Amino acid sequence: MFKLIKNGQVxxxxxxxxxxAEGDTPHSVKLPVGPVLVPLSxxxxxxxELIHREYEHGWPLGVWLAAEESAKEIGRDIDDFTVIAxxxxxxxxxxxxxxxxxxxERYAYQGELRAVGNIGRDQLFYLRRVGFNTFLLPxxxxx
Length: 143
Prior knowledge:
Blueprint: E1 3-6, E2 9-12, E3 16-17, E4 36-39, H1 40-57, E5 61-65, E6 83-88, H2 95-105, E7 112-117, H3 124-129, E8 134-136
Parallel strand pairs: 3-4, 4-5, 5-6, 6-7, 7-8
Antiparallel strand pairs: 1-2, 1-8
């Protein structure tokens, strides 16, 4: 399991992050058991099924937004997510900072907001300022 920095503490990551392998589609990818972070495309394709799964089994649901995806795409669904992960695809990417700020201020998201991808320890202060409270550092960095 990956280590997260969550609210200033290093904790084990209990979430499974669903990715689409070659040949998978948002409609065909198999959903794992338990808490899952799904890509935006899977959320959009299987929204009703994911909500039903959450209520039927009590498994928390999260979504992750790629760096080029917007908070607007999940704005009306914000209350359905326990975790929202926002990806940073490169060190200098500013879009993900804006996404976090919008999620907190415009959409009033109160849950876990997770920074993932190409982030470094030197960015944590700034990430926290825009609303992130959880950070998944790359494996080569010591949490």
